Each structure stands twice: as structure tokens, then as C-alpha cells.
């Protein structure tokens, strides 16, 4: 039996091909773009090709992510919370708190010892604690995403960002640039601000070890450091797979289990 | 085999009363009658002593009705915001103010009437940062309407004493003199006494009806309960409201005996806390149709409309048992003072929605006990941006419930501002919550 999990996020679409023994045979990640349906077809085709499989080989396809309704060929759907939780437990069974920061959403999930979701909290209607905010800041600072994260590690002092709203936070960053504050310190201020907002969501839950950080922002070393500092504890990121792939893995696991 | 369901026989009676209520207020002046406006939490029996032709317009239900009719609500909200009202103020209040500012009055069926019928006076209570200010500003918008607000900052009920009750009673005595002055009418204590007795009967009957929903299958789902409970907020001191609740009680009791439920398939029971997002009551239908999930009650509908024993004498445990009427308590109401004393005590002590505004600990206890007593599998909490009063302890309560092993979901919204509700996200929260609990969608 071979199945697929597909996660259509607001920025990236991800596909995982998995066998009945829960081995990941292939995966593909690509920009979602504007045509979700076409993108999902494309990434699935690429993932199948990488695994040396055909569409008919798939027994079940489970979709997740905000664009899950744009995957007409999916047999089933699973919510992002469940997919992220299952995927997180798969890559790190000791994870009890999962914090996911995607392009437009952040969420925190509490898992029990069997990997079941015991509680969750979502950020609503605000991009200040999500990856799209980081994208905007990277453009302002005229650096690459990798440089942006590294810069934060070079900061020698912490500068608080007061604005609660992404729009006003951008204004604050512009003011700091005009005041000749080094980019390193601005980068740390941004990372700390995002971490503050994300942790505020996570604190609705009982934050227990291990804390696993997933989603695109988990690729950002500056953000990881801010999270560790603000939480006052170790924060892990997936070692064997890209952090933004985890919900797609969870969707594939759901397909294997044949349950939502 | 599914549960038997059937429509409520008294449904039309409730609907008719609600239609007449708004129309009576509208047409009152044609017959020389009196109109008053105020919070649904106000001491409703007190103006009743001015005569049998005194018609109230309570602000919160009016704001909720306005919110339900989204097009009207949007116009009302934008009108009042253009006059400077901030968006984080009470959603009901902004709809009410907007309606006054537009000079358009809304009937229960969504029909709009021009102009907005100005009250002879405003009579309200002051329990939060909003209630008194609501009618002070409404009075300004209306071109100067006499306004009286009663301060009730003497709770919670289990710590009540005669001195605290007296503080409220004296304000009510003053209010009666003030009403006589602003209306030119002589006050009738006999009408007051009847109204006070009716208030207790209405609220206690609603408590007993709510208790019946502890049965499985639940005889009522909350969307229907919204249409029933509101009578206690429109005019609970009205004899007709008592009759409606007597009829409803008998019908619900009969449904329980005959095994008639709210849903054909009840596979999940939950309670809620805050006022619902009135423009998006489809949230309840979504839960029912997709998951066989029935909302068996809420702190809002139980707490506002009913009278309960509440916290025990030690202030440790909440008791969801109906409060006594004067007759059951052996209390004789024979004159103005004894009537005012009873209504002050009754509301201060037994009105659940007042208790948890005095103490977050009480809110935790009443919510926890509601989940237990109504045999709910979970609570779904509305992080309601439209009411600071109701929302101020929501996340503390959530934390307490989770620590005590109760499953909780939260969603963000606004009880009366359609611009602050994201339907897709809310359904996503519901799906995530249900899936995390292993509840399958109905096929």
C-alpha cells in the first residue's frame, strides 16, 4: 500500500509519499502560487516520479492545509492541527508541545504520550506572528533569509519592538533603520517580537518538554534562538526532514491509518 | 435507530410575543402609553408600577437582533463609528447606538421603521464599564432623554447582607420617585408587587426548563433556547411571559418523558460560555449536522435568564439548582419596600450572570459544574471581542477547565459585529477539536 499526504499552505505546497510501514518514499515542496489545484497536481506528480510510482499506485490521498479544499483528487481531509500533531510525533516521539509557524498562521499543539492532540491554540487574524511578516522584514533589510537569521545571532543588545500589529511593526523597523541601528539588532528585535507573539499563543497551553518547532520559520536560526531565550528552555527542530514538511507527513500518516 | 425529533408546539407563541414586544414599544405613544429603554439586566419590575401600558425596549436583545440582520448591523456599526465610537466597545451597544443614530428601528422580523422610537426615559443598571455609559450616550443621541442607572456593585451573592441589599433598595426607591416625576404618573405598588412575583416565577421556571436539558437525549438544542431564554430579558415581569414559560416547561417535560430529542443523532454534548456570534449562528448547525453535537446550554442563556442557588455559603462550590420564588421561600411581599427588597435580593443573589462578574473564581466554578451537571463532553468557548465584561476571565476559565480534565475549544469572534468573525477559521477550529477528540463526522 502506498499513500500520499498533501499540505497546501499559503506559501508552500508539500507532498509526502509513504508506504504501509510508514517509510517516506519521497517528498516534494514547491511554491503554492495562485492556482492551488494545478500546484497540487504538479507536486504530487513530481513526488510520484521521484518515488518511481504512478498515480494508480496510490491507495489513498489525504489533504491538509488552508488549501486542502483545492485538492479535488484527495480522498479525505485532515485539519492542520491533527496533521501537524501526527507528523510531529512521527519525527520526534518525545515531543509534547508542537509550535508551528507557517507563512500566515501560527499554532501550538499539546500532545499526549501516544501522540494524540490533547489541546491546541491558534493565532487568529494576525500575521505579526507568522512567516509572511518575516518575508516583509527581509525585504526591508535587503538581506537573504539565511543572512536574516544569522544577523540576529550577532546582535549585542536587545531592542524591544512595541507594536502589536504587523503594519506598525514595519513602521518601527523603518524608524530603527533611519536611526542607524545596526541590522543585527533590528533582526534580533524582529525575531524576539515574533517569538513573543507565538509564545503568547503557546502559553494558552501547558507547555511541556520536548518543544518541537515546525513550519517554515523553524528554518530560521535567529528565530530558534529567540524562542529558546523567550521560553527559557530547549527548542528542537526536526532533524531528518524540513520543518515545513511535517504536516504533510501527518497527512500521509492519516492516510495510512485510514482514519482522520 | 435515531432519536425522535419534533418541532416545539409553543414555538409560534414565543415568536409572536417577541414580534408584539417590539411593535408594542413602537406603537406605545399612539395610545398615550409609556416607553422606557434600558439594559436587559435592569430591574425590569420597577417601571411596571407606572401602569399596565408601560413598554420596555431592552438594549442587549435589540443589539443581538440587529446583529442577526447583518445588512442592518453593518450600516448601524458604520454609522456610529463615523460619529467616533471605537470598534472595541460593546457590540450590542454599538448596534443600538447606530440604530438610534440612523434613526431606524428594527422589528423582530428584520423590518425597518423610521424614525427610531424615542423612550420617555432610560432606566438601567451599572455592572460594567459599559452599561450606564450606554444609556448616557443614547440619551444624548436621542436629544436628551432622562436617564437613571442603578449601581449594583455589592456582590457576589453568597457574601450578600442586609446592608448591601439596602444600598440597592434605596436606589430603587429613589428611582420610583424619579419615574413619577419624569412621567407625571402616580406609581401603583400593587402592579410592582405583581411584577416582582412574575419576575421570580419567569426566571425560576426558565431554570427548571434548563435543568431538563440534563437529560439524554437533550430535549432542546441551544439555537432554540436562544429564542426561549430571551423572554426573561425582554420583559420577565410580564404575566404573559410567566405563562409562556409554564407552557414551555410542560412541553419540555413531556419531550423528556417521551424521549424526544433535539437531534436525531446525539453523539456529542457540549456547553458554551459567552454570548454567541449572533450573525453566525450557523456554527451551531455545523456542529449538529456534521458531528451530531448538541449544545445543551450555556453560561449565557442559563446565567442571564434564569435564577440559580449559585455559590454555596462557603463560596466553594456552585449549585445549579433553581432559586426559590417568594412563595417557596416563605417571603411575603405586601408593600413597595418588601417588593423592592425581594427583587434586589433575588437578582443580586440568584442571577448567575451577575455572580461571575464579581469574581473569576465563581465563573470557574459555575462553568466547571455546568459541564459536569449537563453531562457535557466538552465546552466550546467564544473569545468574544464584543463584550469586555463577559470575556475578561474566559482564558483563565479555560486554563482552569483544562487543568481539571475538561476538553475545551476556543474560537475568536464578536457577538454583534459581523466583521470580526471568520467562518472558515471557526469551522477549522471545530474540525480540529472534534478530530482531536476522535469524533467522526456523521455520514
UniProtKB/TrEMBL annotation, chain A:
Keywords: Iron, Iron-sulfur, Metal-binding. GO terms for molecular function: iron-sulfur cluster binding; metal ion binding. It comes from the Archaea. InterPro entries: ATPase_BadF, ATPase_NBD, CoA_E_activase_dom, Dehydratase_Activator_Redct. Residues 5-255 form the ATPase BadF/BadG/BcrA/BcrD type domain. Pfam families: BcrAD_BadFG. Its cofactor is [4Fe-4S] cluster. This is Benzoyl-CoA reductase, bzd-type, BzdP subunit.
TrEMBL record, chain B:
GO terms for molecular function: iron-sulfur cluster binding; metal ion binding. Belongs to the FldB/FldC dehydratase alpha/beta subunit family. Keywords: Iron, Iron-sulfur, Metal-binding. This is Benzoyl-CoA reductase, bzd-type, BzdO subunit. Coiled coil: none annotated. It comes from Geoglobus acetivorans. Gene3D superfamilies: 3.40.50.11900. The keyword Iron applies. Transmembrane segments: none annotated. The lineage of its organism: Archaea, Methanobacteriati, Methanobacteriota, Archaeoglobi, Archaeoglobales.
Amino acid at each position: 500500500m502506498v499513500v500520499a499526504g498533501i499540505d497546501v499552505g499559503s506559501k508552500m505546497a508539500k507532498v509526502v509519499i509513504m508506504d504501509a510501514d510508514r517509510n517516506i518514499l519521497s517528498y516534494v515542496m514547491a511554491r503554492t502560487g495562485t492556482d492551488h489545484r494545478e500546484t497540487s497536481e504538479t507536486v504530487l506528480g513530481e513526488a510520484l516520479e521521484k518515488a518511481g510510482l504512478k498515480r494508480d499506485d496510490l491507495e489513498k490521498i489525504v489533504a491538509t492545509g488552508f488549501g486542502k479544499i483545492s485538492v479535488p483528487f484527495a480522498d479525505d481531509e485532515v485539519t492542520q492541527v491533527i496533521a501537524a500533531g501526527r507528523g510531529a510525533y512521527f519525527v520526534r516521539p518525545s515531543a509534547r508541545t508542537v509550535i508551528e509557524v507557517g507563512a500566515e498562521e501560527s499554532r501550538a499543539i499539546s500532545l499526549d504520550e501516544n501522540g494524540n492532540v490533547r489541546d491546541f491554540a491558534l493565532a487568529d487574524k494576525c500575521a505579526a506572528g507568522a512567516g509572511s511578516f518575516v518575508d516583509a522584514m527581509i525585504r526591508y533589510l535587503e538581506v537573504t533569509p539565511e543572512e536574516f537569521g544569522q544577523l540576529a545571532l550577532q546582535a549585542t543588545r536587545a531592542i524591544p519592538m512595541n507594536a502589536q500589529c504587523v503594519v506598525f511593526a514595519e513602521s518601527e523597523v523603518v524608524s530603527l533603520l533611519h536611526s542607524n541601528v545596526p541590522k543585527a539588532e533590528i533582526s534580533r528585535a524582529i525575531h524576539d517580537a515574533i517569538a513573543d507573539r507565538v509564545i503568547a499563543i503557546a502559553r494558552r497551553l501547558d507547555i511541556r518538554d520536548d518543544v518541537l518547532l515546525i513550519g517554515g520559520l523553524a528554518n530560521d536560526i535567529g528565530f530558534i534562538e529567540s524562542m529558546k531565550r523567550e521560553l527559557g528552555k530547549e527548542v528542537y527542530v526536526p532533524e531528518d526532514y524540513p520543518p515545513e514538511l511535517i504536516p504533510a507527513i501527518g497527512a500521509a500518516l492519516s492516510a495510512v491509518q485510514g482514519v482522520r | 435507530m435515531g432519536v425522535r425529533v419534533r418541532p416545539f408546539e409553543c414555538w409560534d407563541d414565543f415568536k409572536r410575543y417577541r414580534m408584539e414586544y417590539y411593535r408594542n414599544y413602537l406603537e406605545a405613544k399612539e395610545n398615550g402609553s409609556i416607553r422606557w429603554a434600558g439594559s436587559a439586566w435592569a430591574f425590569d419590575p420597577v417601571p411596571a408600577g407606572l401602569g399596565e401600558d408601560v413598554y420596555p425596549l431592552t438594549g442587549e436583545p435589540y443589539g443581538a437582533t440587529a446583529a442577526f440582520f447583518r445588512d442592518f448591523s453593518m450600516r448601524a456599526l458604520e454609522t456610529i463609528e463615523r460619529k467616533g465610537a471605537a470598534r472595541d466597545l460593546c457590540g450590542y451597544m454599538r448596534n443600538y447606538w447606530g440604530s438610534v443614530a440612523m434613526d431606524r428601528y428594527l422589528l423582530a422580523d428584520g423590518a425597518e421603521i423610521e424614525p427610531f422610537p424615542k423612550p420617555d426615559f432610560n432606566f438601567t443598571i451599572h455592572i460594567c464599564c459599559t452599561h450606564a455609559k450606554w444609556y448616557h450616550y443614547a440619551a444624548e443621541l436621542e436629544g436628551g432623554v432622562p436617564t437613571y442607572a442603578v449601581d449594583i456593585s455589592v456582590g457576589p451573592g453568597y457574601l450578600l447582607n442586609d446592608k448591601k441589599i439596602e444600598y440597592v433598595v434605596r436606589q430603587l426607591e429613589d428611582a420610583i420617585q424619579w419615574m413619577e416625576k419624569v412621567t407625571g404618573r402616580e406609581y401603583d405598588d400593587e402592579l410592582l408587587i405583581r411584577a416582582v412575583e412574575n419576575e421570580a416565577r419567569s426566571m425560576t421556571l426558565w431554570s427548571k426548563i434548563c435543568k431538563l436539558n440534563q437529560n439524554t437525549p437533550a430535549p432542546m438544542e441551544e439555537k432554540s433556547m436562544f429564542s426561549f431564554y430571551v423572554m426573561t430579558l425582554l420583559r420577565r415581569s410580564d404575566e404573559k411571559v410567566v405563562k409562556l414559560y409554564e407552557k414551555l416547561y410542560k412541553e419540555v417535560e413531556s419531550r423528556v418523558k417521551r424521549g424526544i430529542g433535539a437531534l436525531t443523532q446525539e453523539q456529542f454534548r457540549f456547553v458554551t460560555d459567552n454570548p454567541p456570534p449572533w450573525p453566525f449562528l450557523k456554527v451551531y448547525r455545523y456542529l449538529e449536522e456534521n458531528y451530531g453535537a448538541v449544545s445543551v446550554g450555556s453560561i449565557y442563556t442559563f446565567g442571564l435568564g434564569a435564577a440559580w442557588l449559585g455559590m454555596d455559603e462557603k463560596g466553594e462550590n456552585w449549585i445549579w439548582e433553581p432559586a426559590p420564588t417568594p412563595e417557596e421561600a416563605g417571603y411575603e411581599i405586601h408593600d413597595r419596600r418588601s417588593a423592592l427588597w425581594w427583587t434586589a435580593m433575588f437578582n443580586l443573589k440568584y442571577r448567575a450572570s451577575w455572580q461571575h462578574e464579581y469574581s473569576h473564581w465563581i465563573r470557574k466554578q459555575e462553568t466547571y459544574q455546568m459541564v459536569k451537571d449537563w453531562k457535557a463532553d466538552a465546552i466550546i468557548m467564544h473569545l468574544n471581542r464584543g463584550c469586555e465584561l463577559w470575556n475578561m476571565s474566559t482564558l483563565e476559565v479555560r486554563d482552569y477547565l483544562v487543568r481539571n480534565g475538561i476538553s475545551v475549544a476556543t474560537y475568536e469572534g464578536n457577538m454583534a459585529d459581523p466583521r470580526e468573525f471568520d467562518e472558515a477559521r471557526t469551522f477549522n477550529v471545530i474540525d480540529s477539536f472534534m478530530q482531536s477528540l476522535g469524533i467522526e463526522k456523521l455520514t
